[in-house]
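Supplementary Methods S3. Input chains for the assembly prediction are listed below.
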Amino acid sequence: MKGRKLFLLPAALALGALTLGATQLGAQSQRNCVRFASVEATGSKNSLDPAHHTSTHDGAGIHLTHNRLVNRDENWRVSPELASSWKSNKSGTIWTFQLRRGVKFHDGHELTAADVVYTFRRLLNPKTGSAAKSSLAFLTPSGIRPSGRYAVQFRTKSPVAELPLLITIKQTWIVANGADDETIKTKGAGTGPFRVVDFKPLKTRQLFVRNADYWQKGLPKAKCIEVSVVQEATSKLAAIQTNQVDVIQAVDLNTIAALKKNQGVRLLVSVPSTLVGLTVRIDTPPFDDNRVRLAMKKVIDRQKMVDVLLLGFGAVGDDNPIPPTSPAAWRHKVPGQDIEGAKKLLAAAGYSESKPLEVSAHCSDFIPGLVNLCQLYQQMAAQAGIKVDLVTGPASEFFDTVWLKKPFVVTGWGARPPGEALAVAYRADAEWNETHWKRPDYEALLDKANATLNPSKRVAGFRSAAKLLALEGGIIVPMFTKTVAGVRSNCSGYKPSNEFALPELRFVSCKR
Amino acid sequence: MIVKLVVSRIALAVVTLVTVSALIFAFAEILPGDIAARVLGRETTEEQRQLFRERLNLDRPFYERYGTWLKGSLQGDLGRSFVNGQPTRVLVEERAKNTFSLAAYAFVLYVPATLLLATVAALFHNRVPDSVISILTLASLSLPEFVLGTALMFVFAVTLPLFPALSFTDPSMSFGERLQAMTLPAVTLAVVMAGYAVRMLRDSLIGVLDSDYVRMAMLKGVPRRRVVLRHALPNALGPALNVTALNLTYLIGGVVIVEQVFEYEGLGKLLVDAISNRDTPVVEAIVLLAAAVYILANLIADVFALLLNPRLRTG
Amino acid sequence: MTGRVGWRVPTRRLPTTLRVGGTILIGFFLVALTVPLWAPYSPVETVALPFKGASLDHPFGTDVLGRDVFTRVAYGTRIDLLLSLTSTVIAVLLGAVIGLASGYIGGWFDNVLMRAFEAIVSIPLLILALLVIAAAGPQYSGSLLLLTAVVVLVYTPRVARISRAVAVDLVTRDFLTVARSRGESTWSITRRELAPNASGVLLVEFGVRAGYAPILIGSLAFLGFGVRAPTPEWGLIISENRAALATTPVVVLAPAAVLAILIISLNLATDGLARYLGRTAVRTP
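Predicted structure tokens for the full assembly:
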């Protein structure tokens, strides 16, 4: 009868789907590609342009398809990549990099000095609109020039002792000479271990295949890589448990307990890398009084934050961008919570129970978990009588309506070497000076350190700068996070990078 | 006579659509926040943002922009996405295919389930099966989609790995794989839609079953089942069509949550991303599409009701 | 059916659904009013490590920040129940007045208004809510006032259309013509004639809308556009703790169950009320 047939059809479909399902659940994984699940909290922009590097997810794609002149590891030691060697002149104002011969771009042409010069000049060009322009403020377009076919010179006005390190930032991936914006964005114009296959904006799954002509012999290990974006914690968990992905860039900490039980998945932990915390503008009342700033720092029980927010996967911070575990830290042991001390400071600044300090904190999850950090901070501050009002908003709105506009906001910074970290937001003219820190004595320390060729003297200089920042600055850094990556047991060669936005996928491969 | 009615209904629909478009444009253009800063990201300067604004004509007056947009929409040109510069129409079309196939799948599951449950409930009116169905539908109405979806994912994708947790679909997948990927989100949508529809259909079926016409047929000895299927159901079709039209609108709203839960690449997810990114052209296009679907569905339901119901014709 | 003047309360026996639903709702109210007296912890304080399972100390476990979920769910009644009901009441009153007035006044005013409302209604509820929130801007993000306003804004046109239909229906009745010829003012007519006749429909409409409001508020929170942290609101709690669904399901299932029970009781009460008044509760998605 007509009625019955109506019921049978979807039942049959569902049954069909189920049986097909049981047999084909693994089918998607037989493609021999390593499936990498990235994260994206602020909205995928989908661009392969290193100059903009607007999202974490893009970072994965950029890293796969390009190389930089040198590489830097988690201890900030540089190693050769496209440059085979480098040296500076005696005063440290001219650095010359020798390029490897025979490196081919994906379009077939050979890497020469012209490509490097084009890349850097493009980053410095205000029309490109790259963040690198501020980070590379010590360079000028005319100071970058070829020195023969396979060598590039970087000339600077004052000595830059760590130039090779400082020009290895997340934007300085070498692109082909003369490549236009559109090509770079959608096709990639790099020399990297993988090539793009039909990069589509707004597609959350992108495919990259092995570059057969890659200049490093034996690499990359994987035949192809599929990069996808998975936001939801439960989806990530389910995906890796059911073998729908091979590597998860950042496992949600709350799912670790479930993953530990799973034999098919290994958990790998990075060193403490990303800084998370809060910043105040030191020129805006009530934050212009250093006693208030110090009180706000003293209320924090840093270890508790690491335990509750990171489930132990992190390290305490010391209110400056250098982790206490680094040799450049000014002290390695950070004092714990001091409520009494905070109360005394607040009293000295004129606050009391009848007239408490009231502040509004603007928070957003542009790094997942930041809103939780704000909530915990609110609790701790309350113990010293500070009333914190939380204003939260969507992550994608944060950077245009909140950050750099409100006086008390949440913040997060990827790992950077001391020379870069202490400058990027703390020089008076830095574009992202979130704390409005303007101290000539601080800048003098930094300038001197940058120019000091002796490494231990340079580190001592960084230490002094860091100490100044911690004791008088406007940044509150309770902790540094460790990235926890999830990898299927049949895969090897992946190690979570300390630079969260740049996962290293050259060495990863999966046995099927 | 009837042609006049139909034409007037269509004219009404068009007027509504134009009004909606104005509303949408108004909402989208007063979205505060600097579009330039939002789209270009954290790391830009004021000059770059001004360049961006000029390039996209963001500094022209409101009515001029509305006019341009409306004219363009009629010709199929919905502008370019602020975020990645791709033509909005291309973006929306691609995602629309996914959402519509998800919606179709959900529909295929929902229609027979609704018919079956509503018929059973009406036939066993006020007895145990009716009460059970009543409780089930009430429960399905009372569960937010994100709870239902997450629970389904947990049970059927994590605990018993029957379905994939991530609903990726791409052209290289076979039909079977694609069906699999869409099943959990489709079931979630179908369950919610059925919750509303079963109740409505049951009520109107009871009304029809009670009618003289049906009672006569049953007195005459026509078997109950045939009465229901041949006589009662068709007459209850009117309100059923109505509910279905409304369910279609629900689909476009409901997919927003469901696509988020299952990471399904459809219009819903595109919309949330576009709202977050202040990608105004995309937002406008999708909301316009949603409204158009609603208006069209209602129009069709109205016209059908007109054609089917002799009483309404002489109006 | 003849219209009547003035209010009259029917005195039949209350149906079971109304009694069951009503009792549960009263229970929720009591919890909302008295929770500070008996809650074991503070709803915003970290008291243990995150995601501990259900125990005697923590019947619903601890959440992502180590807060007691039972306490948070209990405090959540204040927001979810009160916010839903308040915003729905305002929406229904506003919609009723506008709709009744529009239907009664008729003419081009009615036409224009109804076209506008029909346009608003053709945008799906959730999407409209998102647009309004996004348009309001970040300074109001998470404010309860904004959420109330959003619910009112999306519901009022829908209620108005229904009450207008009632008004149009009533306008043609004799008793209204009599009242008008007696010289009664529009306001008086609204109060004494229109409103009582529309009350049945509106009460049911209120119940239907109130039943969906917690879902709307929860969905907005889930998408990140709802109440601010650390406010204990069930949708937000579910969304905050979703990551632990696989490890500590109780922290998600408990608020989900409570939310479902609230909505079910609202729907039950509405159905019972409708039956009592001799109508059916028409729910549309």
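Chain C has nine helices and no strands. Chain C has one domain: 12-36+85-279.
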